Amino acid sequence: MIKKIPVAQIRVGMYVSDVNAGWMDHPFLRNSLLLEDQEQVLKIRRAGIREVFIDTAKGLDVDDVPTAQEAARSSQQDLERMAEAPENKAPPPRTSLAEELAKAKGAFNEGARLVRSVMDNARLGRQIEMESVKLAVEKITNSVIRNSNAMFTLRRLQQRDDYTYQHSVGVCAMLAAFAKAMEMDLATIHQVALGGLLHDIGYVRIHAEILAKPGKLTDEEYLHVKSHVVQGSDILHQTAGIPQLAFDIMEHHHERFDGSGYPRGLKGEEISQVGRMAAIVDVYDAITTDRVYHRGVNPGEAMRKLFDWSKYHFDPALFQIFVKSIGIYPVGTLVRLESERLGVVVEQREKNLLQPLVRVIYDAKRQYYLPPQDVDLSRPFGHGGGDRIVTHESPLKWGIDVNRFLS
Ligand SMILES: [Fe+2]
After folding, report:
1. Which secondary-structure segment (H or E) carries 41?
2. Which residues are in the HD-GYP domain (predicted)?
């Protein structure tokens, strides 16, 4: 049985089936291991991990803790309650998703191309062309403001090879949506989004073979990877016209609310507000994407994990606003409906986070594909709606390629 336990309770002889540390940008521990000596126990505790999953069939058991399933169910309920919170003054999107998708594609690809060229130039010690960066950021931001579903859809349709470039655009777009939900003004949203686009530029000074390494990193390699933050800040300092907010995002995106982050181990409000926002967005984007060493998790599952981590690692009040900006079943989430059908969330409505537009694709009971049909869960039965999300589902478990149904 898989159980979830606080790290204070782990001891030698237990089998950790998941170290529950997806918020780290690189696994310096294997994700599952038998705890053979005290050193391993301490290493998990020192890493700032607060809760892990153990497999009681493969190692020692412990009483009075929830099973992984029970823990997941109860967090999901809490998260749904949070999403129900009334009061969302968000105006409706200014363009339809289909219309916006056509416009957003150019902005997304241009953004990714630009990050590539900025990084290539930085590698050669050349100046960052700030005018073109600002222009690209404005295009991405404006698309998000018109209808954020388009950029979020494009991010889901990512390709594996270009990770850093697409991650940068993803973080940029999501930070813009987050900043909008925070009711920041347009000039500020642009600065925050700019910080998002450049936040990982320090990776140009990290050895490529370490970044591409599929296995476990040595402590030394992990330290080197972490140095991308100070390296990035160094690069920004050599560039004229970088707003302070972009520096804050760069320097704080790996700090954690409980002080367990890096490079400075800042705590709570010692971390800038935009840095605390960037930490949430960075982790969300990273864990929902396929990498050399892990498969991306379903966005709905990612939200539940982030909710759990927000008790320690993230600012809980900001997490609540983040939920408003992308929903608890974000675009690309595979969900199971009350009617026993599976569908993919294609459009999130800021006014009602629990009732998005879902493309129904599969009959879970009889196990066959259905002709895709869009169901607006906010509408009553007989008017294109009349169904309800029961839970999110793993696409892997069902063998469903969600991306096929997104475009
Ligand atoms: Fe980073």
Report:
1. helix 38-46
2. 142-338
Fill in the DSSP letter of residue 333. Answer: -
Nearest-Å Rg of the Cα atoms of the chain is 21
What is the CA(256)–ligand 1 centre distance, in A?
13
Domain boundary assignment for the chain: 2-65, 97-326, 334-405
3 Cα to the center of ligand 1, angstroms: 30
Two structure tokens written together for 292 = 């050399």
Residues with CB under 5 A from ligand 1 (ion): 200
Residue-wise pLDDT for 156-175, tens only, equals 997 666 888 999 999 999 99
| Pairing, β 2-6 against β 51-55 | antiparallel
Indicate if the alpha-carbon torsion angle 260, 262, 268, 274 is positive or negative.
negative
Intra-chain end-to-end CA distance of the chain, in Å: 39
Q: Residue 54: which H helix or E strand, with range?
A: strand 51-55
Ligand 1 centroid – CA 72 distance (Å): 28
Q: Are the C-beta atoms of 293 and 27 separated by less than 8 Å?
A: yes
C-alpha to C-alpha distance for 317 and 319, rounded to whole angstroms:
5
Name the band, by pLDDT with cuts 50, 70 and 90, for residue 179. very high
> How far is Cα 321 from Cα 395, in angstroms, rounded to an integer?
27
CA–centroid distance, residue 235 to ligand 1 (Å): 14
Measured in Å, residue 205 CA sits from the centre of ligand 1 at 13
Residue-wise pLDDT tens digits, 34-80 = 999 998 888 888 888 889 999 999 999 998 899 999 999 999 988 88
Strand partners, 368: 363
